[in-house]
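Figure S4 source data
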Amino acid sequence: MQREELFGIVSQVVYGNSEPHAQRLLGVQVALIEQQVHTRYRQIFFTDYIEHYVRHDPCAMSQMVHALYLYMTQRSGTWLLNTYETFVEVALKQTSDVQTHIDIMNDYLVVCV
């Protein structure tokens, strides 16, 4: 129900009217964007990296999954970046365990330098 109300408001702003046709058009566009984001996120296999570095800490795993999801879905400019480098960037910001940082950076130096 709230989504339909939101579509009505947005269609009024975007199309100048909130008729059902304008709302349906907006709904189709939103669904398309949601599908693209979902497809893109599904193609990025961060879970392998997360399990490798923080499998011992379920809280950190959950935090990393959430942070990576937000990073990839809220910043479309990241979609063309290297998945591993993106993981390293987010992991270093989201984890506070020094040994995990050392492990990530050691591997990063081997892989990317």
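Figure S5 source data
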Amino acid sequence: MIHASNFKPRVFPYNGDVSDAEIDRAQSIDPDITLNREEVKEIGRDGVVGYLKRTPTVPYNLTQYEYGNFEFWRKLTNQADSVLSVDLNDFKTSMVDICGYLTDDDDVFLGTVQYPKLRTAGFSWTIGDPDAVIERSFSLIGEDAIIWQGANKYFILNEKTMGSAETGSIAIDLSARPPVLDPDLPAGDDSDYFIRILRVRAGVTSELALTTNYTYVTGTSTLTILGSLVGDVIKTYYTSGTAPATIFTDNDVDPAGIMADCVTIELTAGDRLYRLQDVTIDVAFDRADYKEIGNTEVVQRGITDKTVTVSLGRFLEDFSIEEALRGVSADYGKINPREFADNLSISVKIYTDNTKTIFAYGFLVDGLSPTSLRGGASVDEYSRRENTLEGNTLLISTTIADLN
């Protein structure tokens, strides 16, 4: 059997010169596969004629403890390590492969599960209560879930940047981890050993074609890239019977998890919110990912709409939040929800511990409009108040000045 400690998750960004990385502090990984097969019958016949095999749907859900590291946000949006902030538009065309490297209790490596070309469908950031560990959850969507085993058991990414003298036809030595032929190729067809080969040139990522852009001689471990230019980054994805140099590196630098007492939450112009019991920032994308006639692959990716929902829960003690939503001072005298402002901001600043001396990163949600105000009373309980706001922009930044 495969214990969670031997399930090693790793993310591989598609676009740009962005390296792969292990997925730290994961608490649950929950992919699903719906094959979308339609049973066909016909008049005059008893039983099934056959099945129409449509493109599968593969939702992939991942939950992490918040640990104050911006890395996974960069990987999901295919941004370089030098990038200090991302916004919701960065999720439009980005995609990732996520792999699980699987070893059983007898320390035998069984294979790799690959979920290719996943796009982000939404995410949430949640504080469940004042003593909770903060959680962040991601919903991704794809079309495939591939098990690599046997001679093909390791998923490999080889990256090479063309140097000052590397133009034209350039050979890449893959002998350290020789590529293994895909067993699904037709009998006798040994022309292509690669899942995909990408070239990043001047920030633009292109998928290379056999013969036109590269060649590979059967039985060798030398890949030849044609028409190379200085600065090109070549990302070669394939499978091998030899393990990659790195599968999972233990992260003992970042906190094990960040608690609710390590954040500061402000509503518009630095008004800090107190007495909060739970907070959720939820982002949902209306994805526009399209295939084309004659092809089962998604070839165009985008997002038509973005919805950001912020929920604030508290025990009712005063009306400070409602006063802020109304834009009036304390004890104004009358708070009518019809008069609530509709261009509010909420910032969340995450620190590495509750001394709040080391800032990690945070969120800024602009253009928020209140959508609901809920509160009542139950026997033997204190009254609660739930405020919900909605917008369509969100900035995630490692620069604290961006959140003010």
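The first strand starts at residue 7 and ends at 13. The CA atoms of residues 309 and 381 lie 27 Å apart.
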